[in-house]
């Protein structure tokens, strides 16, 4: 070995790193919110009685779960603009790709969570005169959410990791900034190690949270 | 109204086919090495000796808690400088995804082994087996059957993750699609074909996995995720 | 002629789980050929005592002596330290039958019984096979050799488990509530098997709730309460004329005891 590690060259570019972090967090927040919101809709749609709602939702889930996110991001960035009268920005393309993929996965989590609540709960709710919507909102979802928390936090972790894919279209996030620093300072070792450490520090608390939630769920079931 | 024209894309079908082959090559390599390495990591993690379990735990946590693309860049750009070796895109990809998938497989192994009830361990030890014997003869065979669905799920994830190799110019299916898009000036058709091709392959794999899962469930075996 | 020297000797055995002191000092001598029934309420420590004898649980203090040799190594504070490599050969000499059978579901009955001789005693496969078939025949299940545990009744499973323990040719057999998980009509076949083992003169310790069976099979009965031996003696002494009030109360509660 004999390489002399020099992190100063990375830390000197802290402004670039901060810009990258901001980009990462912005993308993460958008995709998390969109992914979960859309996922809830998809999950509900998948549990619907009407096949007109259930089957298209199913097709959505199958397609976006079985295609790689990077392909989707590139499609939204390079292919979609051809069909539209306007450009698709980098943030928009990355957000679309990641959010739709996350919606498909979290849709399955929501569906599983809702269906895991035993029918007795539905009957109890309706027996006191609740509409299905009220039953869902007041009785089913609160219980289901608790069970889904570990899987949902896992999804959040995956979304955070997927933000790096936006670097493929040069969106300004952490990894992209790492590449920039590496190519300008000729220090790929320190640059990429620093990026890896930064991601690890951001994600580690979330990972511990997931373990904690899983254990808590296992205990109470 | 845009006029779709797939002809220029399909004219390069050979590039796409070669790309698909390379995708499968990376996926296959990472899968085989990843499962073996994952088992090794899992066993080290379960070991009572800290010298074995801590490094294994470290590798597992680091490779599960950092984005795969960061790992890929590190192995492709940084490792050659640190270790003074040449890294082709394939080598970087194979190494990265082998270790990355191994970290996830290790968790599947661990969950599978933990799911075998204590009574099996006790019965094995009660007839005088050592722990390694009990693991090898009694616990692991029962664990593996339960882990098959989770393995298949992980394998399919791997198929999707390996598209990242396009970013380091490894000629996989996505890279081929990008090339074709630039040559034919038909990004819409090129990337649509790529997306559909990935979908068909991965969906087929998912369905096969689901069928295996149903057969296992029918035979009364419980499963872990 | 019975060897008067104890085969198994336990001195001041103690075991706690966290703050819960389950065994508070057990002294016990078991001679070759003796059949000791261990009775007691839940929580009295009877299963824990049994599990300490083949080191499924590690005692906190006290000694376990097998055939004159004290097991484990001396450690701080007068306790013993036990290392797994030393315990493995002990478990080859002391067999255990579990309440939940714990048969290996991925092997046939024959496979289960063969596993010990083949893998642990390193017998050649053919020899292990013959050994296993003989043991299965001894428990009356030779025709079920190729059946998987999932296709056996509870009573059959337990008998295979007994054959599995016997295949290791143990000097002592431990039975941890062998019939407690069985449907009532299947209990008899297992008790019958244990009785035939008794007739062969095997050294056994049985934790059981079947007082009538204990009366007929055991040469000695122990009654455990609060982690200590409250009373011990012959079956007649303990079961028909118990001296301690708690023993009396326990026997009265298990009214299926008929002489």
Defining key terms:
heterotrimer, A: 221 residues, MetI-like fold, 9 helices, flat, C: 259 residues, alpha/beta, Rossmann fold, four-stranded antiparallel sheet, 37% helix, 26% strand
TL;DR?
The complex is a heterotrimer of chains A (221), B (225) and C (259). Chain B is mostly helical and 225 residues long. Helices cover 81% and strands 0% of the residues of chain B.
Mean pLDDT figure of chain B: 90
CATH topology of the domain at 24-174 in chain A: MetI-like fold
**What is the average per-residue confidence, as pLDDT of chain A, rounded to a whole number?**
89
| Helical coverage of chain A, percent range | over 70%
Assembly status: heterotrimer
Can you tell me about this structure?
Chain A has 221 residues and is an all-alpha fold. Chain A has a domain at 24-174: Orthogonal Bundle (MetI-like fold), CATH 1.10.3720.10. Chain A is built from nine helices and no strands. The model of chain A has no long low-confidence stretch (mean pLDDT 89). By secondary structure, chain B is an all-alpha fold. Chain B contains nine helices and no strands. In chain B, α4 crosses α5 and α8 (173-184) runs antiparallel to α9. Chain B is flat and about 75 Å long. The termini of chain B are far apart. In chain B, 45% of the residues are buried. The mean pLDDT of chain B is 90. The two termini of chain C are 29 Å apart. Chain C has one domain: P-loop containing nucleotide triphosphate hydrolases (Rossmann fold). Chain C has helices at 46-53, 84-93, 109-120, 125-138, 154-166, 184-199, 211-217, 235-240, 245-253, and strands spanning 6-17, 20-31, 35-40, 61-66, 69-70, 73-74, 80-81, 94-97, 172-176, 203-207, 220-225, 228-233. In chain C, a hairpin with a 5-residue loop joins β6 (73-74) and β7 (80-81). Chain C is an alpha/beta fold and 259 residues long. Chain C contains nine helices and twelve strands. At the A-B interface, α3, α4, α7, α8 and α9 of A face α3, α4, α7, α8 and α9 of B.
Describe how the helices and strands are arranged:
The complex is a heterotrimer of chains A (221), B (225) and C (259).
Chain A lengths: L7 H4 L2 H33 L4 H15 L3 H15 L6 H26 L3 H9 L4 H31 L11 H12 L2 H33 L1
Chain B lengths: L6 H5 L1 H34 L3 H16 L2 H16 L5 H27 L2 H9 L4 H31 L11 H12 L2 H32 L7
Helix pairs in contact in B: 2-3, 2-5, 2-8, 3-5, 4-5, 5-7, 6-7, 7-9, 8-9
Chain C lengths: L5 E12 L2 E12 L3 E6 L5 H8 L7 E6 L2 E2 L2 E2 L5 E2 L2 H10 E4 L11 H12 L4 H14 L15 H13 L5 E5 L7 H16 L3 E5 L3 H7 L2 E6 L2 E6 L1 H6 L4 H9 L6
Parallel strand pairs in C: 3-10, 3-11, 8-9, 9-10
Antiparallel strand pairs in C: 1-2, 1-4, 4-5, 6-7, 11-12
């Amino acid at each position: 070995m004999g390489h002399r590690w020099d992190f100063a060259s990375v830390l000197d570019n802290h402004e670039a790193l901060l810009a990258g972090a901001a980009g990462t967090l912005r993308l993460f927040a958008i995709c998390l919110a969109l992914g979960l919101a859309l996922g809830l809709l998809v999950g509900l749609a998948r549990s619907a009685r009407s096949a007109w709602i259930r089957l298209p939702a199913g097709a959505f889930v199958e397609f976006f779960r079985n295609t790689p996110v990077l392909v989707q991001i590139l499609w939204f960035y390079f292919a979609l603009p051809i069909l539209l009268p306007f450009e698709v920005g980098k943030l928009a393309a990355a957000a679309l790709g990641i959010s739709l993929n996350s919606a498909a996965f979290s849709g399955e989590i929501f569906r599983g969570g809702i269906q895991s609540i035993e029918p007795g709960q539905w009957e109890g709710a309706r027996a006191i005169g609740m509409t299905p919507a009220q039953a869902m909102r007041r009785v089913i979802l609160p219980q289901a959410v608790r069970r889904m928390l570990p899987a949902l936090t896992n999804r959040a972790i995956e979304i955070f990791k997927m933000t790096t894919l936006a670097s493929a279209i040069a969106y300004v996030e952490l990894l992209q900034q790492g590449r920039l620093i590496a190519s300008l300072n000729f220090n790929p070792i320190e640059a990429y190690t620093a990026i890896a450490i930064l991601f690890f520090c951001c994600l580690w608390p979330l990972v511990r949270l997931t373990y904690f939630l899983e254990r808590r769920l296992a205990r109470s079931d | 109204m845009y006029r779709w024209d797939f002809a220029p894309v399909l004219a390069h079908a050979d590039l796409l086919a070669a790309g698909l082959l390379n995708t499968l090559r990376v996926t296959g390599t990472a899968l085989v090495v990843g499962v073996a390495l994952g088992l090794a990591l899992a066993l080290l993690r379960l070991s009572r000796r800290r010298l074995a379990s801590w490094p294994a735990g470290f590798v597992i946590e680091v490779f599960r808690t950092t984005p795969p693309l960061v790992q890929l860049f590190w192995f492709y750009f940084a490792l050659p400088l640190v270790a003074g070796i040449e890294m082709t895109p394939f080598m970087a990809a194979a190494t990265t995804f082998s270790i990355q998938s191994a970290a996830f497989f290790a968790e599947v192994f661990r969950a599978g082994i933990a799911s075998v009830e204590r009574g099996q361990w006790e019965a094995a030890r009660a007839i005088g087996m050592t722990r390694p014997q009990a693991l090898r003869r009694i616990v692991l065979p029962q664990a593996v059957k339960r882990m098959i669905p989770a393995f298949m799920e992980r394998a399919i994830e791997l198929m999707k993750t390996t598209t990242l190799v396009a970013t380091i110019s490894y000629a996989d299916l996505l890279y081929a699609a990008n090339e074709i898009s630039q040559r034919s000036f038909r990004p819409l058709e090129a990337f649509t074909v790529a997306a559909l091709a990935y979908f068909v392959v991965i969906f087929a794999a998912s369905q096969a996995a689901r069928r295996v899962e149903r057969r296992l469930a029918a035979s009364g075996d419980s499963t872990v995720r | 002629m019975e060897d008067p020297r104890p085969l198994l000797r336990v001195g001041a055995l103690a075991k706690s789980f966290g703050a819960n002191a389950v065994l508070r000092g057990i002294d016990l001598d078991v001679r070759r050929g003796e059949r000791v029934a261990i009775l007691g309420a839940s929580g009295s420590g009877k299963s824990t005592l049994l599990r300490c004898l083949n080191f499924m649980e590690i005692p906190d203090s006290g000694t376990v002596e097998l055939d004159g040799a004290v097991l484990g190594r001396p450690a701080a504070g007068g306790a013993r330290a036990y290392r797994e490599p030393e315990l493995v050969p002990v478990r080859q000499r002391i067999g255990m039958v579990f309440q939940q059978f714990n048969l290996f579901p991925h092997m046939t009955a024959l496979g289960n019984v063969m596993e010990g001789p083949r893998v642990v005693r390193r017998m050649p496969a053919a020899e292990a096979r013959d050994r296993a078939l003989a043991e299965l025949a001894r428990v009356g299940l030779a025709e079920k050799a190729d059946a998987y545990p999932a296709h056996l009744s509870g009573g059959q499973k337990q008998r295979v488990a007994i054959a599995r323990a016997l295949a290791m040719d143990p000097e002592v057999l431990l039975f941890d509530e062998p019939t407690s998980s069985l449907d009532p009509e299947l209990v008899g076949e297992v008790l019958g098997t244990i009785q035939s083992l008794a007739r062969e003169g095997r050294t056994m310790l049985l934790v059981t709730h079947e007082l009538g069976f204990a009366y007929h099979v055991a040469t000695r009965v122990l009654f455990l309460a609060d982690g200590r031996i409250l009373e011990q003696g012959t079956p007649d002494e303990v079961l028909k004329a118990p001296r301690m009030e708690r023993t009396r109360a326990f026997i009265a509660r298990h009214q299926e005891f008929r002489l």
